[in-house]
Amino acid sequence: MIDARLWGKSDGLAKPYPVIGHLVDSATVCGAVWDRVLTDTQRRRVAEALGVELQQARRVVMFWAGLHDLGKIMPQFQDLAVRARPAHCGFLREAAYAHGRVNDSKVKMVRHEYATHRALPQLLAQLGYPVSGGRIARLLLAQVAQMLGGHHGRYPEGIEPQDLRDPLVGLPELGAGAWEGQRREHVAALYEVLERPAIPDCGALPTQVAVVIAGVVIVSDWIASQEHVIQRQQKSVDAHPDFGSSTALRAHARSAERMTSALVEDAGLGRATFGVNTFRDMFPEIISPYPLQLSVEAGLAGAVNGPGILLVTAPTGDGKTETALYAASLMGAACGTGGLFFALPTQATANQMYGRLVRFAEKNLLESAQLTLLHGAADLYAPYTEPADHGAHGDVDPRVLSDHEAGGDQGRQISVEASRWLRKQGRGILAPLAVGTIDQALMGVLPLKRNALRHLGLSGKTVVIDEAHAYDAYTHALLLRLLEWLGAMGVPVVLLSATLTGETARGMVRAYLSGADADAGAREVPAPSYPGWLFASVHSDRVVEPAELLRSERERDLEVDVRRVTHTYEPTVEGGRLATLLGVLDDVATGGGCVAVICTTVAEAQQTYDALRAHYRSRYSDDYLGWDDRSEEDRAREDTDAGPRLRLLHARFPARRRAEITAEAERWFGRTDKPEVRRPTGSRGAVLVATQVIEQSLDLDFDLVVSDLAPMAMLLQRAGRVWRHAAPAPTRPDWSEGPRLVVLAPVGKDRGLSVPASWGDVYAHSLLRRTLELLERRNGASLAVPGDVQGLVDAVYDPEFASAAPEELMEQDLRRMADDMARHALAGMVALPPPRMVRSLHALTTSDADEELVRTRLGVEAVQVLPVFENEAGRWLDEECSIRLPESGRGSKGRFTTAEVRALLGYVAPLAHGPWRAECGLAHVPPAAWRDEPRLVRLVLLPHRVTGGAGRGAVLGETRITCDRELGLIIHREGR
User: Fold this and answer.
1) Are 926 and 888 in contact (CB under 8 A)?
2) Which of 199, 408, 654, 892 is exposed most, by the fewest CB atoms within 10 A?
3) pTM to 2 decimals?
4) CA-to-CA distance for 208 and 559, rounded, in angstroms?
């Protein structure tokens, strides 16, 4: 007989809630998760692995989910309520529950999930689960114990053979006598309530199946553990004086069943189903689809019959995003996936894609499905977090959308608003639709706590990975491992790239195929055409490619003007970098137009901007105001005598200032068919000095791009910003006769390549040398885009590259390859093994790292700093000393609201970790009340003393850090 006095939940409740009640609740919720969240494909894979019918598989998984808290039936756990509920816990003094604690661990308490893990194998064996068939780790009952023992996020180590015979020998804390008997009774009772689920006659499940079930268990537990659920189910307990009897437990299960579907829906879980139509139906706003889009539509029709990987390579602006969304819908329907995850390289690109995905969902979802934005600052992105004021600006709320579909229910509202439940940390990946940074997926192949949730969230979706070329060797190695896992889980994948070497592309396709089938990884994969695409199916050896060579709507001849320059900012040095740049920019100074100058580092961009500002002041008088976005006088002038408008954009501005500059750049250089765009025209031009930040996330068009020397792929990416928009095309100045990229190549006294020390190791020197030599071999011949692109990108990595300086190149190549090998090796050390090589689930969650601090990309760590301006009146957030630094928030007990946190972080800027960090002291620590807010507690304050209306920068050892409105954070090292 079940003893319902054994409690499973107590904190915050009017009375303790029985363990058996929670076991039944969790099992019942699991049934709803199985029905409403898992796809047909996922359910079928589980059933096939278990060797049972679908309905039996459902009940087996429900049974397992219900057993997760069995370990709460042990003395140490039940003792936790003795002090708070002495009357209820009086039964623990009964003789049947006597427990000698002399053998209990004196070091730490045994956690209940670990107790589940150790007690369960014997109990499953008693039910009839197989106990033979190889080493114990390969037994299903041992794996189930690991899955349930990991329901708080970390899989325990494997069991020992003696645990099958008597777990009390190794873990006496479990308790003998009535404790042991009640664990057996609870297992038997749940087994009967679920109508005696089948006993699978199989060994351990494939890893990719086991982790999905583990994720289902965690989600079921979380939903069933909500306070309002327990309070409602407590009424069922109270209604049955004989609670614990078979009749009462079946009634309890029926009570839970009546609300489980609503609980899953309220959590925001479910599946997203897109209508699979023609490309034009899905994107009616595109009157004339690009050839790439039509080719993929025609080529995939009839070719997709299951999981596979689609690789799309095309220049920027050829419609890859729409192609990916169309293909993802088609591939998802063929594979029976229930959602989409769109992965991008940066937070800025993810934020932009969020809006695009909302609009796509509005037009194409068959029913409501929730959409989450996933990155470290998603909850601070206003369009995602703030409900829109429909009356204030006439805009439609981007989070709650409606559309009238032909043949559908008129007036039916399609919602993509993410629930509060899904917005909790770690849950967003479970939403049917998600867009975020690639890190959110890559963390699924790192041994982090609760990565079963990432496995569950990804396994039922189609995954799109954009900018697949944009990562270093370390991140690329993690990406290859992710592709292996996705292949093993049967997840259809779309890869997008503008500049990807043929061998790298083939390697990514092979990684996916090898995950799905070890033999498939050896399949011959052709090099992708450019522009072009290829689709490799898991179920077929055939690789589908375009029926004919594609032509790009953006075909053009790009003039690449390579200038060898000495790296000096002296304007009088002939052939120097500044003198050459001033000569190149003379056309915009006299004839108008829009130019981007892209620099290698923030410091170089700041110095370049400062030098240009000084030059224009000397040329146009000290009253030159083209740099000042606050000047009403300058805003009104359009004459040449006012001098070019000049702006600086990089990542080291405080967030709100960077957003202001970015918005202005989009108004100046964005698509002219957008109503907010006001492109500078006439005789007064504009110059934007920037770093790589404008390469990916901003849709900008310039009449000329000037760039420091960079690897070929990056130069071609930057060239995508020159003469970018063709329909409609902006008005061009007379001097701009076609797309032109000027490359400033640094050289030494011998006129050979000499990479400035200030560039550090931003780029591998061997790639810079190879790029420079390839470009100069063309002798000024224009570059055909896209015709020459793939050949140039591949040539940079050619092992037989014939260099004009072979010995120097060999030395540089060896350094580059050694660095790449080290990064690959490091990724191999930290990443999960491929699924087929996992011997124990324990290996999947061994790290104690905080996922917010996990690095999926190598490089100098960024510190979030907050410039603070101090005067006699106090501390301020702005140099004008008008916005006071808040010592605490306006919420309860001085806590900060989300809006207040967002406002504060608008003044924060990232700064590379360095010697200055070790010099920080109490003056750089946030106020005490900030410690309760995770977003604020890690900030480093940079005090600026305000004298004479200007802030003197923070001095940290030999480093002075100054926040300047036009330049951003300036780093100056004393004595240099």
Assistant:
1) no
2) 892
3) 0.91
4) 50
